[in-house]
Design brief:
elongated; mainly alpha; 0% strand
Length: 88
């Protein structure tokens, strides 16, 4: 995300003007905007954890996962880890 994009996004989030200097100040203070709202993050986590649980159940029942299944699980793990890191 570019500096101008971050300023525009924060302006929308805070419903007040946020300039590029404000974004830099927040960055220097260690504040980072979240990649998505918490409600959306929870929805993504719920979906990805359900997908992971179904795959685990399939494995427990002897189902062999396809290459596509394993690739999708890697996507789920990446999304879960990304959200976890962003909100930690």
């Amino acid at each position: 995300m570019t500096l101008p994009e971050a300023a525009r996004r924060l302006t929308m989030v805070f419903d007040e003007e946020v300039g590029e200097a404000d974004v830099l100040r927040l960055a220097l203070d260690g504040h980072r905007p979240k990649p998505l709202p918490a409600s959306q993050a929870i929805a993504v986590l719920a979906f990805e954890s359900t997908l992971t649980a179904v795959a685990a159940g399939n494995i427990a029942n002897g189902v062999v996962l396809t290459d596509a299944d394993r690739a999708r699980l890697r996507v789920a793990a990446k999304r879960i880890n990304t959200i976890s890191g962003a909100f930690a």
